TrEMBL record:
It comes from the Bacteria. It comes from Saccharibacillus alkalitolerans. This is Biotin transporter. Keywords: Cell membrane, Membrane, Transmembrane, Transmembrane helix, Transport. The keyword Membrane applies. The chain crosses the membrane at residues 7-23, 29-48, 55-75, 81-103, 115-138, 144-168.
Length: 184
């Protein structure tokens, strides 16, 4: 891994930590709050590409495990990684990898709607399809109830998917994916 890629991975882990400083919105009927950190996941994958995007989220999770209070609401340590939020958190590197993979595939003919589609499939649907069943297993509730409860995340996640796509389109000229895919 190049020094530049390591710096980008660290910067995006820090960006996701900063997004965690914005207070979460608790939801009364499920134990997972609404946060802005999934916006960072989409930005990391789409801007950095599959490898560096996934590494930035792995680094973020390691920092959480070490006890840094960088999850939304000031949480850190092992408790969030084994509690109801575990599935969502552990889905982030997978989502960043797949968003990066999708972004790299469409990069030569990049359009905002293509990035939105990649973000929705891998940053919204995939994260919820991993996070909700794990939350259900940990809280001993039916998986169907967890999936139904996670529908509350969809409006905000769709807004984050659009916002991430717009930001990536504006910054595409300085993206490492630009260098990698187009050799710029």
């Amino acid at each position: 891994m190049k020094t530049k890629e390591m710096v980008y991975a660290a910067l995006f882990a820090a960006l996701i930590a900063v997004l965690g400083m914005i207070p979460p919105i608790p939801i009364g009927f499920i134990p997972v709050p609404i946060t802005l950190q999934t916006l960072g996941v989409m930005l990391a994958g789409g801007f950095l590409g599959k490898k560096t995007g996934a590494i930035s989220l792995i680094l973020f999770i390691v920092l959480v495990a070490l006890g840094l209070p960088i999850l939304s609401g000031g949480y850190g340590g092992l408790a969030p990684l084994v509690g109801p939020t575990a599935g969502y958190i552990f889905s982030w590197p997978i989502a960043a990898f797949l968003i990066g993979w999708g972004a790299e595939k469409v990069w030569p003919s990049l359009k905002t709607w293509k990035l939105i589609a990649v973000n929705v499939v891998f940053g919204v649907i995939l994260v919820n399809l991993i996070g909700a069943p794990v939350m259900s297993l940990i809280t001993n509730t039916p998986i169907w109830a967890g999936l139904t409860g996670s529908l509350v995340f969809l409006p905000g996640d769709l807004i984050k998917a659009v916002l991430a796509a717009v930001v990536i389109m504006q910054a595409r000229a300085i993206s490492p994916v630009e260098e990698k895919v187009l050799g710029a």
